[in-house]
Write a structure and sequence with these properties.
With about 120 residues, the protein is α/β, with parallel strands linked by helices. It is built from 5 helices and 5 strands. The chain starts with a strand and ends with a helix.
Length: about 120
């Protein structure tokens, strides 16, 4: 079973993607902020990381940086971002993100990208 860490602070959006991915049989670890996401990544060594860029405490960019520079892992990372955050998205790719999806996003499109990445 493939393991996915999801870092997302919007509970409605989180519920949507959680249901869609669980239905496909993925094991999910949920973090409401980047600090918890890093803890879950270190504890569970996921096959994929999905992270929002804008979160409290530790943001998505810091999560990417931690995975690539501190943990030295090449785990695939897909980032989410609301529109108008182009600079953040470019930074995310510079730090080592593999894919990007603008919000609001379709759970079905997310599923396609997750399958393609894994």
């Amino acid at each position: 079973m493939k393991k996915i860490v999801i870092a997302e602070d919007n509970s409605v959006f989180l519920l949507l993607i959680k249901l869609r991915l669980e239905k496909e049989g993925y094991q999910l670890f949920i973090a409401e902020d980047g600090k918890k996401a890093i803890e879950l990544i270190e504890a569970n060594d996921p096959d994929l990381i999905l992270t929002d860029i804008m979160m409290d405490f530790v943001n998505g960019l810091e999560v990417i940086s931690h995975v690539r520079n501190v943990l030295k892992k090449q785990t695939p990372i897909i980032v989410f971002s609301a529109s108008g955050q182009e600079e953040m998205v470019i930074k995310a790719f510079d730090l080592g993100a593999n894919d990007f999806m603008g919000k609001p996003l379709s759970p079905n499109e997310l599923l396609i990208r997750v399958k393609r990445t894994l």
